[in-house]
Write a structure and sequence with these properties.
This protein is an all-beta fold. 0% of the residues lie in helices and 47% in strands. Strands 2, 4, 5, 6, 9, 10 and 11 form a 7-stranded mixed sheet that branches. It starts with a strand and ends with a strand.
Length: 127
């Protein structure tokens, strides 16, 4: 069975850092493209960063600078390091797999192309 399990969220003060993990079972992240997303209160789910084919990293422009994506294929885990967190970063953070291979091949980073979502991990940033 496919399972994605996010962890590492928590409550931090503004300016703090967190490192999120997404442990995957049921498929290999080495041959599938993965993405990190978040849903903040009152807004639609949005993309943060992802791995395209051959492990190429991609970042949404607005997320560049404070977010760093990485992966450990041997552990079948993807990571999202977040720094200089702001109250606006409060939300639920998810990882997911590119089911249509469109983003993987260089296409648009679209929430609609991703599936096998994890349950998410809550990040709360206080001012």
């Amino acid at each position: 069975a496919v399972l994605l399990l996010e962890s590492g969220g928590g409550s931090v003060q503004a300016g703090g850092s967190l490192k999120l993990s997404c442990v995957v079972s049921g498929f290999s992240i080495g041959v599938h493209c993965m993405g990190w997303f978040r849903q903040v209160p009152g807004k639609e789910r949005e993309g943060i960063a992802g791995f395209r084919r051959y492990g190429t990293m991609f970042y949404v422009d607005s997320m560049k600078g404070r977010f760093t994506i990485s992966r450990d294929v041997a552990k079948n885990t993807v990571y999202l390091e977040m720094s200089d967190l702001k109250p606006d970063d409060t939300g639920i953070y998810y990882c997911a797999r590119d089911l249509r291979n469109s983003f993987c091949g260089g296409g648009y980073f679209s929430v609609a192309d991703f599936g096998d979502w994890g349950q998410g991990t809550q990040v709360s940033v206080s001012s």
